[in-house]
Structure formats: C-alpha cells, structure tokens
Amino acid sequence: MTAELARDPRPIFAQALDQAGKQVAAVSPDELSNRTPCADYDVRALLGHVVSVLHKLARVGTGGDARDVPDVIDGIADDGWASAFTRARSEVERVWADDERLDRMVELPWATLPGRHALEAYTHEFTAHSWDLAHATRRLAELDPDLAAQALEAFSTFAPPEERSEQGPFSPVVPVPDDADMYTRLAAYLGRQP
Predict the structure, then answer these.
(1) Which InterPro entries does the record cross-reference, listed alphabetically (predicted)?
(2) How far apart are the first and last CA of the chain?
(3) Would the pTM of this model clear 0.85, i.e. be above it?
C-alpha cells in the first residue's frame, strides 16, 4: 500500500471540523440573514448546508445514499445551530472511526471514490465554508491558513479552471494580488469575491 493511499485523512478532517464548528457556534441569531459569498445562501442556509454535509457523510459511511439527505437542512431553531452541528459531527466521527471504511468505495452525488478521498474532499469543503461563514460574520482573523493552503492545493487538482462550466459549483477564478493571504487566494480560486 502506498503512503498516499495509507494516509489517514481523519486528523486533518477533525481540524477542519473544529474550525467550522467554531464558526458555526459564533453565529448569533441576528447574523442569520447576512449574505454569504455562496450565491444561493445566506448564513442560515449555509449553516443548513454544513449540517447537511455532515448528515450526507454519515449516510454514505454506512452504505446509504447521500442524495436522500437534502442539500440544506432547515427547521433548526435560531440558537440551535451549534448543537445541530455538534450532534451531526459526533455521528460522522462514530461512523468513520472504523478504519475499514476508509478504503470502502462510497457513492457521493458527484463521484464514487474510496472513503478516505471523500473525507479529504469534504475537509476542503468545510475549510472553504468556514471562510464563507467568517466572511459573512466578519471573523476572518480566526481561520487556520494551513487548512486553506491544503484546500487550495486540492481544489487546484480536482477543480481546475479549464474544467468549470456555468452549471458547476465553482465560478471562474477571481484575480487577486500575489501577496493575498491564503484564504483570499482560496476564495478567489473557487470563484468567490473576496
């Protein structure tokens, strides 16, 4: 088994969830209607999406279909997002604690791949959405630049600009200065307006 294949994605996934969890917990009810850099989401909808992704990961980890979970969970009380995130995270960590799940193929809405690669992909999604939440609530100073550097490297591989379309999840790359911080570079690469 190669070192690449054998790498356990769960520690870095946990770091991304720690960061996302802090952003979720910091959101106050009066910020729920703030616009986010995600075109279709205000803060409430983005929180619903983040919680949904955790439910999807738990579902595919047990062999279920992620498409059975809506893209945005709603019906959460204004002050209940942190506990909803924590409960969903606990379930994901319970499901993915089994090492055998890392090499089992999982079917996601956008690909079928080994579990370890699914966790890596969602590590980067949580990193990007942490920036989205921090940007919408003006908490940018609280983000880990190492997570952004890893996400930017990964997105450069599996979401190259030349393969994007108007129907895809990423808009064209937005130009930023060469000395932009890592999260600004990541957001711009994903087509957000930093």
Answers:
(1) CHP03086, DinB/YfiT-like, Maleyloyr_isom, MDMPI_metal-binding
(2) 40
(3) yes
Q: How far apart are CA 191 and CA 157, in angstroms?
A: 15
Q: Read off the pLDDT of each residue in 80-102 and give the average, rounded to a whole number.
A: 96
Spatial contact of 142 and 155, defined as CB atoms under 8 Å apart: no
Q: Which CATH architecture has domain 8-189?
A: Up-down Bundle (1.20)
Residue given tokens 């909803």 in the structure block: 84
Q: Is the pLDDT of residue 127 over 60?
A: yes
Q: How many CB atoms lie within 10 A of CB 185?
A: 21
- pLDDT value for 23: 97
Q: Could you tell me the two tokens for 182? A: 């890592």
Asked if 20 contacts 129 with a C-beta cutoff of 8 angstroms, the reply is yes
Evaluate if residue 69 carries a pLDDT over 50: yes
Residue 49 neighbours by CB under 8 Å, 6+ apart: 38, 41, 71, 72, 73, 129
Side chain identity at 46, as an amino acid letter?
Answer: L
Condensed to tens digits (0 to 9), the pLDDT of residues 150-163 reads 999 988 877 666 66
- CB 155, CB 23: distance < 8 Å: no
The pLDDT tens digits of the residues spanning 9-34 come to 999 999 999 999 999 999 999 999 99
